[in-house]
Design a protein that fits this description.
Blueprint: E1 2-10, H1 13-30, H2 34-55, E2 58-65, E3 71-78, H3 86-90, H4 102-110, E4 113-119, E5 122-130, H5 140-152, H6 158-251, H7 257-288, E6 294-297, H8 298-308, H9 310-316, E7 319-321, E8 328-331, H10 333-349, E9 358-369, E10 375-385, H11 418-428, E11 432-437, E12 443-450
Length: about 450
């Protein structure tokens, strides 16, 4: 339900000023704050001016809407030619030589809601502003109070209205200056905070770099120390192994069954320890030696690995399928030989008892994105076997040092260093290694290197 408060006929220029005055008076009586009073008066002034200038003449009516939501509604009606480019004007894309469209857009932005109906017979502009909080007593007493107050308030001279507008502008500029000063202060605080954050980041990066360098140095010292220990252990271990073999060869007849078993165990343990130390030395050497990369023909690399493992291939009656052509890759020949031998040797070793190993080697060429975002051509060499496979939960774990999934007493001998050595070697050659495997269904190991 709407209740009309006032009506102003807009026929002359000074009626525009009168519309502004009456709108501000109504806004003040209803309880709008000073800022909202200026917003309402300014919006009314702009639309009233358009009504007079482009519509020829018209009227302004102010209503209070009680439901569904309490609103102050301002309705402007004229019998002009209508607004031809309304959508363009409201989008802020149109401006005539007289400035038409600026006031309309500005007025609609000042209000909570607006509605414009226009055609060749005229235009109706409706502006709505939500009543201030606490203004809920929209009863007859309230409307009588408004009517009495409006009847007592007379219109001011245009000069006085201009003074009022200037005062409002000065207040607006003062408020704007305060906000600009506050914004400048906040910007300064943000700049200072950014500078402090940048300094803290630089200090943190410096400390991280320094700590990383210290850790790398400590790691290199530890690796050299472990390498030295492993190297020094080889001599006494060889002595134990050699002396035990002499005992077995020269004095075996003097031993009973228990003695023979002990010497056999000593030789076996010493041999296993020798293999373990050898693998540890190979692994330790990878961490501190310089690795030079060059173009390596994979045909030659695979062929050398097959020759090195020939006795095991013959012994296990293995079948190995090899492509006729391999690409050239960027690698270190020695490390690549270790990688190929370890992967193929595992495929020969980890098969069910009585099953002849079958290894199918294949190559996939593709692209890889480096850390700096460049794209490089790569070659992925795949080794598909018919072995015992690896449970999915252990597909990454098997590349760690001393990770053996079958235990020391299983039928599958090993030190648990082979695949860790493969991982380290691939890292040093800027390559990758991985596995796709299911328990009891074989494994597909692969290595990936840049094309040479």
């Amino acid at each position: 339900m709407n209740t009309r408060l006032i009506k102003v006929e807009i026929c002359y220029e000074h009626d525009v000023v009168l519309s502004r005055q009456r709108a501000r008076q109504v806004a003040a009586l209803i309880g709008f704050n000073a800022q909202d009073q200026v917003r309402i008066a300014t919006a009314v002034s702009e639309i009233a001016r358009n009504t007079y200038r482009y519509g020829g003449r018209g009227k302004m009516e102010l209503f209070i809407q009680r439901s569904p939501k309490p609103l102050l509604t301002m309705v402007f009606t004229d019998q002009g030619p209508g607004i031809a480019d309304l959508e363009t004007i409201l989008a802020g894309k149109y401006k005539s030589k007289t400035g038409m469209g600026v006031g309309l857009v500005g007025a609609t932005r000042l209000m909570d809601n607006y509605r414009i109906d226009t055609n060749a017979n005229g235009t109706t502009v409706t502006l709505e502003q939500t009543l201030p909080n606490g203004r809920n007593e929209l009863n007859q007493e309230f409307f009588k109070y408004l009517t009495d107050q409006l009847s007592q308030q007379t219109s001011q001279e245009p000069f006085v209205e201009i003074q009022q507008q200037n005062q409002e502008l000065l207040c607006a500029f003062s408020e704007l200056e305060k906000r600009q000063n506050e914004l400048a202060r906040l910007n300064l605080e943000i700049l200072e905070a950014k500078q402090q954050l940048r300094q803290q980041n630089e200090e943190l990066e410096s400390r991280v770099t320094e700590r990383t360098a210290d850790l790398k140095d400590s790691l290199r010292q530890m690796e050299r120390f472990c390498y030295s220990i492993a190297h020094d252990l080889k001599a006494p271990l060889r002595a134990i192994n050699g002396l035990t073999r002499i005992l077995r060869e020269d004095y075996e007849s003097a031993f009973d069954a228990a003695g023979k078993d002990c010497t056999h165990r000593i030789v076996k343990a010493a041999t296993r320890m020798d293999i373990l130390i050898r693998d540890l030395l190979d692994f330790g050497q990878l961490t501190h030696v310089d690795v030079l990369l060059s173009s390596v023909n994979l045909n030659e690399g695979i062929s050398k690995a097959m020759d090195y493992l020939n006795s095991e291939i013959v012994l296990t009656k293995a079948t190995i399928e090899v492509p006729t052509q391999f690409p050239v890759v960027l690698a270190n020949p020695v490390l690549l030989h270790q990688v190929l031998c370890n992967i193929i040797e595992n495929a020969l070793k980890f098969v069910e008892k009585g099953v002849a190993p079958c290894v199918k080697i294949s190559v996939l060429e593709g692209n890889s994105i480096t850390e700096n975002g460049t794209v490089t051509r790569t070659a992925r060499i795949q080794f598909q076997d018919n072995g015992i496979g690896v449970a999915a939960a252990y597909n990454q774990r098997i590349f760690k040092v001393f990770e053996r999934l079958h235990g020391d007493n299983s039928a599958y001998e090993g030190t648990g260093i082979g695949l860790a050595l493969v991982q380290k070697a691939m890292d040093r050659m800027n390559g990758f290694v991985g596995v796709e495997s299911t328990l009891n269904q074989g494994s597909l190991f692969w290595i990936e290197l840049p094309n040479g």
